[in-house]
Specification:
Distance between the termini: 40 Å
Mean pLDDT: 96
Structural class: mainly beta
Strand content: over 45%
Number of helices: 0
Low-confidence stretches: none
Number of strands: 11
Length: about 120
């Protein structure tokens, strides 16, 4: 089993920056891909950033040019640097990991989310 924990959410003003972290913990696993999703109340969850091993990151059009996803594979951690924050970025942000459990197979894990609010 793998646990996904997000951190770094909070309140920022429009135009401000915030960095989210997502750490995976457990035994005998390898992360093949990690992604960030967000979901505002009443809205569907959308993927905003994704990066698989050995591939370039990709972003949704709504965040492209403002958000940057990066990974520290040694720490099983993924980051989301969010610049030029807009009010519409307000949402719960969720980390998703595509994980290989050694000897078992591929599994998909979700964190519980961290709230980001963009407001003056």
């Amino acid at each position: 089993q793998v646990q996904i924990v997000e951190s770094g959410g909070g309140l920022v003003q429009p135009g401000g920056s915030l960095r989210l972290s997502c750490a995976a913990s457990g035994n005998s696993f390898t992360i093949n891909a990690m992604a960030w999703y967000r979901q505002a109340p009443g809205n569907q969850r959308e993927r905003v950033a994704h990066q698989a091993n050995g591939e370039s990151p990709n972003y949704s059009d709504s965040v492209k040019g403002r958000f940057t996803i990066s990974r520290d594979n040694a720490k099983n951690t993924v980051y989301l640097q969010m610049n030029s924050r807009k009010p519409e970025d307000t949402a719960g942000y969720y980390c998703n990991a595509d994980v290989l459990l050694h000897g078992l197979g591929m599994y998909d894990y979700w964190g519980q989310g961290t709230q980001v609010t963009v407001s003056s």
